[in-house]
Queue: 3 jobs
Job 1
Amino acid sequence: MPSQTRATLLDAAIHLLDAGGLDAVTLREVSHRAGVSHNAPYKHFTDKEALLAAIAAVELQRLGTSLAAIREREPSPAEVLRAAMREYVTWAMTYPARFKLVFGVWTTGTEELAVAANASRTVLIDIVTIAQRAGLLPPGDSDRLTALLQALVHGAVDLALIGHLSPGGKGHASPEDLVDDLLGYLRIATNAESRPVPERL
Amino acid sequence: MPSQTRATLLDAAIHLLDAGGLDAVTLREVSHRAGVSHNAPYKHFTDKEALLAAIAAVELQRLGTSLAAIREREPSPAEVLRAAMREYVTWAMTYPARFKLVFGVWTTGTEELAVAANASRTVLIDIVTIAQRAGLLPPGDSDRLTALLQALVHGAVDLALIGHLSPGGKGHASPEDLVDDLLGYLRIATNAESRPVPERL
DNA sequence: ACCTGAACACCGTTCAAGT
DNA sequence: ACCTGAACACCGTTCAAGT
């Protein structure tokens, strides 16, 4: 039974998160924005971390739903794969604070969070498997290949958010570029594996 | 002139960071451990964030030094590349709180931090360039290829620290595995590019 | 130049009490 | 069941003052 107050609190919290980052999300300011006393949240969440975990779970679920929608909508496996990777990037770059929160350190791993994480992971694995069958990605363990792809997207976004990518000022190596690079190399490797590898020095 | 107190404060802070994470690093506890009053830090750092930035800069510099040492020590370009990637992984997995701190959100990007980041980046680019010449990595923009490699290591470590890798319990897809996978695919792609690519459906 | 004690504003959390 | 006001312990930061 998601009470009205609970939803209002979550709305206020996510607004503060987007506007001022994690530090701006204080239980007192959240309560004030929601129009309740500063300790009303404790009737809906055991903890401040529980409130943050609820936000993270919702966001991770949203991402999973977007990925699933792409899988249904796009026609070709190649487009599904590329669009899925780009959805991850766009989401993270649009809501960096949510991205940092979702993949932050959780001393208490909420069950709800784990479920949402597994759900979006399953969709990704499905997309990768289809791409493998279409000859766009190398064959083999789909879980492991999915981990490879997710690690790259995740790392590219994280480095981009800190400014560790393209410090030269020139629009060098955006997360989207790196995703395309990886997909390109993997496609080449896929096609090469069936052919003999030449001798090396 | 790095005063003795300043060094003691940094030591205490990094100890607290490793022991209890970022939240455990309070200026008051740091001061107490250093044997000074709770506001003595303000004579050595303008801010709490400045103290954290100093730690991050030292760590990033340490990483860069380790990478440079590997480049000098290892004989073959292949070993240098692999060892460098593993050094990044080992450092991050051994000191997760330092890793999170170094690549955390910096509202104030200290000059010292930017210098340290560029230094370790330069070493990495150098290693990648050598590996390219040795035919271990695809030719082309070394900066961009370095970004690809760094993004993968970074993302793999980050996901591993949250537990988003190998949630099945089986020792599936460690960061080291993903690094090896990527290097393997890139080597195949390198050798394949000189040969004709077969028609696709 | 470096350090201290008191003080301020803010935060998470708890508790007794109200409806 | 849900909310409130007062209170507690803790934190970052500032300031006047000491050597």
Job 2
Amino acid sequence: MQNKDLSLLKELGLKLTPQRLAIIEYLKGNKNHPSAEEIYNALKDRFPSMSFATVYNTLEVLVEKGLIKELSIDSSKKRFDPFTHPHHHFICKACGKIVDVEAPFEVFVPESLRDFQVEDFKVVFTGVCHECKKE
Amino acid sequence: MQNKDLSLLKELGLKLTPQRLAIIEYLKGNKNHPSAEEIYNALKDRFPSMSFATVYNTLEVLVEKGLIKELSIDSSKKRFDPFTHPHHHFICKACGKIVDVEAPFEVFVPESLRDFQVEDFKVVFTGVCHECKKE
DNA sequence: CTAATTGCAAAAATTTTGCAGGACT
DNA sequence: AGTCCTGCAAAATTTTTGCAATTAG
């Protein structure tokens, strides 16, 4: 999610409404992998009339245009990630925090996938984070 | 999900009702990573009175006891996997199929996680499967 | 001005829960 | 017999949808 993305949206004929700009602003640089509800709650003070439809609609557009990614990490709800470059995640089983893992390591693509066209892979680490380890 | 698991369930004071046995039987060796609804639909002919509550309750028990795993691969619904040994997955973006990847490869644990207690990792490959590649 | 977007409300989809009756050990 | 489990129905959660009113470009 970059600043230049704003002009990209415009070019595509999409309108930069205040609500959209607020959602984009909220997501920009956000490392908390928020859900739709978290985004809604964070913005409803500034936009008391905003509806979930707008949040979901905007998220859908941003995902479609590749400006954010939808995560399937939390099986109870969708989460969204403004960092679209290849990266991985660590989930703390104590506090539930999801941490970005930037290392661009390689994974051996196993023999069983030799006939498949493997385009990407994502690694999810689990364990206990530094803060929770102390307790 | 193994045969010996049945006696394990009994030992834990859990009852082997016909519905539970049917769900266990349906899951055993099943490589389709079914959702609760798929399990329900597959069994409702044999158990016309069976309710979702029973399916969800049984799945919860099986997950709790470690006999199956809940997957967070599909962001629209929970899926369940009777294979509890460490393994990974490939998702075909054309047909949506989820394929088990058995290779016990190692992943480099990145420096940024040095203060974390990393206990496990799962890899999700994406791409196009052999069948879909032909088309 | 016009097409895109919002907000509302209803609905769909998935999962959870309370409880009375029924079944397993 | 006693505890666990089932089925039902209602509710909670998350997400989607239709549509009239509004707004950005």
Job 3
Amino acid sequence: MKRNRNETNGYEQWGGYMEAKKIKLEKQFIEKATSDGNNVKSQIFKGISIFINGYTMPSSDKLKHIMMENGGVYHHYHRPGLTTHIIASNLPTAKFKLLKQYKIVKPEWISDSLKEQRLLDYRNYLLFIDKSDQPKIDFSIRAKNASEPTFLSEFYNNSRLHLISTMATTFKQLVNNTRKKNQTDYPGRRRLKKWIEQNEVKDILSQDTEFHIKKIIMHIDMDCFFVSVGLVERPDLCGLPVAVTHAKGNSSMKREGVDREAEFGLYVKRWRGDDENDNETVQEIRPQSTKRDMIDEKDSMAEIACCSYEARKLGIKNGMLVGQALKICPILKLIPYNFEQYKKVAYTLYTHIMNDYTLDVEAVSCDELYLDCTQILETTKASPLELATFLRKEIKEKTQCPCSTGLGSNCLLARLATKKAKPNGQFYLESDVIIDFMKNINIFDVPGIGRTLGHKLSTLGISTCGELSGLSLQTLQSEFGNKIGVSLYKHCRGEDNRKLNYDYKPKSVSAEVNYGIRFQNKENADNFVRQLCNEIEKRLDDVDMIGKTITLKLMIRNSEAPKESAKFLGHGFCDHITKSSSLSKSTSSSTLIFQVVNKIMNQLDIDPTELRGIGIQVNKLENRTLKKTGCIKNFLSNMKSDSKQHQNLSNKNTDKQLLRSITESKSQQSSSAKNPHNTALISTEYNKSESIVDVVLHKSENYNSKRQSTITQSASNISSHQSLINIKMSQVDPTFLDALPADLRQEIENELKANEPQTPLTIEHNTATMKISMTEESSKLYQHVHVDQMKEFVEEWVATENEPKLCDNLMVSEYLCNLIKDKKIEDAYEIIRKLYRVIKNKNNLTWKQSYFFIMKNVQDIMLNVYNAKMKVESSF
DNA sequence: ATCCTCCCCTAC
DNA sequence: TAAGGTAGGGGAGGAT
């Protein structure tokens, strides 16, 4: 099925979903890169050819290195007959059945052999104890948690919630972008018209109503989306109780440190609002979370992401734990996730509707959307239900999945109508029946009423909208707050004046992980936080925004909670901490974000081993403004040139040199009041600069000073702190300080002021124009400009120039080529990714050509050096 | 009044 | 084993 897919369709071209793929390719690519330049150290593994299946510890990368340095062979694919051993830490049953005739060995075989400098007997390292039909996996091998460098991508590849979330954002963006098209032809409307004529189902009424067509909103919701998609390839399971989950059955390991009963008890206690010293009031019994009922010691704690209507009839609910579900319904069929397929079906759904019917769509999630049908009904003269019937028929044909639709005069009514229509049905809630209809609606079906609000209402004796409408606005407001009061008051009467929102503008960007967080030390934690910061930067870049407020969110094991959580690698029963910090200048820089987060972490002084969840959030977003026109010149005005400095910087990175570079660059750019002569020296020279090359050269010192002061400010714990104690206030890039939160800035300033010199440093400036050939220039550039700086620069370049200059194209490609020659393709890849992202964002033909031009050069040199092309985006 | 921070709630 | 994310709205209470 996958093989037959047309590879050049819109889906392939469409960004956002390619992340997993990219990560995979990147890995291959790094593997390829590191396969060169090996030096053979021994022949321990002579005659051994391994293929690595799945995630291992040590990583496949490391194992590969070990093999290659010690006479062994590494296969990227399993090659029966050639591969002598399969290395795996874990194997799914299906795979095991395929491979069980081969030697499947734990990776420790390799690492231990290396340690002992001789080939050990693999039979002592077999992954399975016997070769029966079920793999008996030795679970004592190290579990994968957030200390592992590949954890985050692995987690994202398997997290349904992450998927749901990112898909929602992606489709909102898709709607945004599609609406920019000037579409006039809607083939679906023509088909609908034809269908009505042929079927002569037209009812007279609809013709009358066209004179006074009211706004009609349609709500479309796929029926139990994940299950429906899954059943396309498993038609044999149609009609049965089916659930989508990670678990394969109802068995889990008994692990050390787990006390399920104790942990569940803590949740119940918290949910009930238990409090030792509240004995005078009647205890308010909140509904217990029934989620953990009936779970015994070894029942699966995996969650059911989605279950079929047959399963629902038997009492299974989404979110239920597999252990409990199987007790309620032992015949429940469990099927695995298929993330790629969900994306495809959702994409089909959206493009079908938007290409063929209307652009007036609000995306709610991957499987749910609102549609303003006014225009469609006007042009086709169809009745609302005719439209619904026809559209549902087409969606079913296109996606193979059923959906339900509700129609009404506002979003709320359309939604409630859908609820009534489900499964696989449709319902038009007409105005004259609204009052009766609403009377019997269960409060929990009203959007915005969840378990807490719903429960609070139940304690007031209210379970339907009819009863809710008996409460005065005043009561509702004093009980629930002003806004929520109003919304309850209106919603229970079927009123909702919210407009469809077509323009998606993100207000916050966040990344959080509350699974698999097990750190042994602060370094583990820091590394992970850094990854989250990178993730945030990437997401901000994707939407071309920067943000001002950074919030850190931590989950920490509650002191009463068992050491290990009931769920494998779960967060267990935790205390929650959030703390935010406002920058004085918006940013998307992961480095800067990390500084802030790190600072907060240090303040909180949390034991890293007790962390169970970490999240970072950026709020107060604004567009990355393209600054003023001629901003290249602005850019220049922050810079200064001094060939001597370049010299200094090229001997890279000893503390002393960095210190010197700070000293020099800072004194040049310190405020004009302090050093007027320096400012003068920044000179007209820059205004003559035509090429970005100059700019980059100039900015490099500035950048390094930034990096250095960055290190300085992470105050309390960093060892380099001491060696930098001599940094002076006037030496620190003020733009860096500006971007820090006030308290942090104050702290650094105070510290730095203490070191202020008696007399200002004087620096010699060489303002002679550099007249060197492009090649010399670019190699110089390459030597002096740090990769991160180049990334930053590429971004600035694309954002601020209307058209790329040839010399800048050359400069960038030569820089990249230099990197590749130096075998630093990871760095090159990073820059290319950035370049791709910003150009894609810019969506301008000349820039795209510029990308292709640069990539042509890059691929040529790749072929030259590696005899292979770099796997990167080749279309926009 | 309006904003900010730290929550909590809800939805998918 | 298991993959407990993410964005938005809003309230309480204090600062401005």
